[in-house]
Amino acid sequence: xxxxxxxxxxxxAFANTLDVDEVFTPVADEGDAxxxxxxxxxxxxxELAKGPLVRVLVRTGGSGVPPxxxxxxxxxxxxxxSWRILLEDLAAAYTQLAEGRPVDLGARTSSYQQWADRxxxxxxSGAMDHExxxxxxxxxxxRPLPRDAGADEAPEANTFGAAATASVRLSRAETRALLQQVxxxxxxxxxxxxxxxxxxxxxxxTTAVRVFKGRDSTGVRGIKLAKGDEVVSMAVxxxxxxxxxxxxxxxxxxxxxxxxxxxxxxxxEETVEAGDFTQEQYARMSAAEDxxxxxxxxGSGKLSSSHDYPVRGRGGQGxxxxxxxxxGGPLVAGFPVEAGDQxxxxxxxxxxxxxxxxGISFRSRSAGGVKVFDTAKGEHxxxxxxxxxxxxxxxxxxxx
Length: 400
What we know:
Blueprint: H1 4-15, H2 20-23, E1 24-28, H3 32-44, E2 54-60, E3 68-73, H4 80-98, H5 112-124, H6 132-139, H7 172-185, E4 190-196, E5 200-205, E6 231-238, H8 244-258, H9 279-287, E7 291-296, E8 300-305, E9 319-320, E10 331-337, E11 342-347, E12 352-356, E13 370-371, E14 381-387
Parallel strand pairs: 1-2
Antiparallel strand pairs: 2-3, 4-5, 4-6, 5-9, 7-8, 7-10, 8-13, 11-12, 11-14
Helix pairs in contact: 1-4, 4-8, 4-9
């Protein structure tokens, strides 16, 4: 978390362009529980008809308590990709203000509307006419997408009884093309992340595991397990080529943006100093980042960056995915999520809870988690499910 003067200067800079009374709300520190309850209400309270569609809460800390900022925006105003662009600008502004420099986010780029207008004009000028026969031939064998019946079509085509489900299964050749040939052509890769109960994780390309012939195949080793350990989760994430120095610099900036002040625990990786890193590099890595959620049996959890998990050869011991002390208990689940998603936890005693992802703290891969669900004595989390962003929530319902 950056110093209070830098935060105050950033708030003042935004205040020059926004209705402060409508958007900004200073909140006196009344503890983590009060802050969590307030942020939950704000996130659930944006209405298109009444507004405001963007709210910023500034938690003013007391002695020894760092300030916190919550930015809540309606999904129609800010999607997942746009959040990353905003965070890039906020990171740049934080850094500049903390160093006593004025905020300079560079020249304004072309808007989406300008890009669309230029693209439309380019097509209408006839510059792309020579490609039309090719695309007509390519699309000749493709069935049209389903749509509502037009005025000249039978109205019963729009009824529930006319609905149908189409299932498509990729062949072995198509699967090989998707996992091996397509990534090679576009210089991308798909990575597997295996997570173990005792807090180890390993990341390797999916192409390191070949397609087997049948069910009687024995498979290959993904991670070398310690005595008493077991694999509890696997996730498929995006790949991004980066040097160790760039990865370290990106994670340093990412922690600053998320307000993470603690340093990660000493890991079993070789220490790498952060190299020179530009805002453009941070933007590119942010666009390719997956947020990885990890949950423990005692209800602790955290979000961490996929860039915090180095690519290793399949079959190794992996790296730390939780603090060495494992204070939250063994890991039970880990998978990629988006900030607008929710998760559902179920415990050994039959309790369940639905939790918004954006209420879970971002932390380093080797750091411990924060409390997501209070488990009773003898109770432990047995399952965690992912719920995609569904827009407006219907609110919380309690037991009768």
